[in-house]
Amino acid sequence: MTYLYAAARTPFGRFNGALAGVRPDDLAAHAIAAVLDKAPELDRARIDEVVWGNANGAGEENRNVGRMAGLLAGLPVSVPGTTVNRLCGSGLDAAMVASRHIETGDAEIVLAGGVESMTRAPWVLPKSDRPYPAGDVTAVSTTLGWRLVNDRMPAEWTVSLGEANEQLGEKLGISRARQDEFASRSHELAHQAWESGFYDDLVSPVPGTGLTRDENIRSTTTAEVLGGLRPVFRTDGTITAGNASPLNDGASALLLGSDRAALAIGLDPVARIAGRGTSALEPQMFGYAPVEAANRALARAGISWKQVGAIELNEAFAVQSLACIDAWRVDPSIVNVHGGAIAIGHPLGASGGRILGTLAKALRERGERYGVAALCIGVGQGLAVVLENTETVATPAPHADSYCNAAR
User: Fold this and answer.
1) For 261-306, what is each residue's pLDDT tens digit?
2) Which H or E element spans position 70?
3) Which of the residues 30, 88, 187, 338 is marked catalytic?
4) Which of 114, 152, 229, 368 has a 20 to 30 A CA-CA distance from 312?
5) Which of 101, 187, 338, 346 is catalytic?
6) One of 30, 187, 324, 376 is an active-site residue; which one?
């Protein structure tokens, strides 16, 4: 079994905002240091692996940012690191990969998480087949979306993320008004969560930036205000800058381990990873992919939606979030009760760690046993994890014969 022992993240900054001057590998290193600060008894040399998520890989986070971040965070050089890329789901995928390492016995303690600086994502030039091309070469932004697309890809697959979600909303009949109401709720709940202190022990400010809270939250936003914004992707469309997640910078980290790792970590686990699910469908329908991913995760956990007390669904777009909630037939009031990505932000590789850490704390705060964390992913994929609140069940006693307690 895999347990979550601690979670931490940076505040999420706006595109070209307070974190714009911080390299992504430094953001990642800060998140690692912040989560390890919660486990002062843990000998850093006992960490078996760093598994890190990142969606870009084209800029300063290139060449295995997971390994770079571990070194920059001061981990012993003997702690290996790897980087996984499942686009928007990279951070959650990192946690899932880490949990498999633990459950197969390949590891006892793993750091997982993710990072993205969408501000610092570079422009790239395709490499010419021959030196000194005679024609012009176009620079491509690596910030978000399709790039350097293979001509063999069907055109209907490679529409923009926004157009794909316009198609989803049109197909399912999800109105602009519902989207704006959902987006307004995200800002309201995120603001309330910060004001109540919910995020205080989950978020670690990055020194020198002056940013102590998520930068994108607008506490005075209303559905009426959002209703005045122009559609972005179609002149007669429903998706605006206000009911979709923004571009952001940030990092998140998770300390995962087996039940036997508790003695070495010096903490009681806060949640157990009870189920995992992945799914895929047509690339342009990616916003709907979390539906089946979550259903599979629940089946593997051996529970139903009726037993779920909290859901963290990454709000890439209001329309796709509503589509998933409708399909699951769950009570919307248990979804993103502390705000979602529309307000908080969506630095691609970091979002999975954010929602998993938030879910674990929400379960404890609400006294619920089971929760679901899920994300949609570009190119038609979805990921989901079921967490079980360890406060609601008897936690297995750590094994005294664990290698964590032996000399290494």
Assistant:
1) 999 999 999 999 999 999 999 999 999 999 999 999 999 999 999 9
2) helix 65-72
3) 88
4) 229
5) 346
6) 376
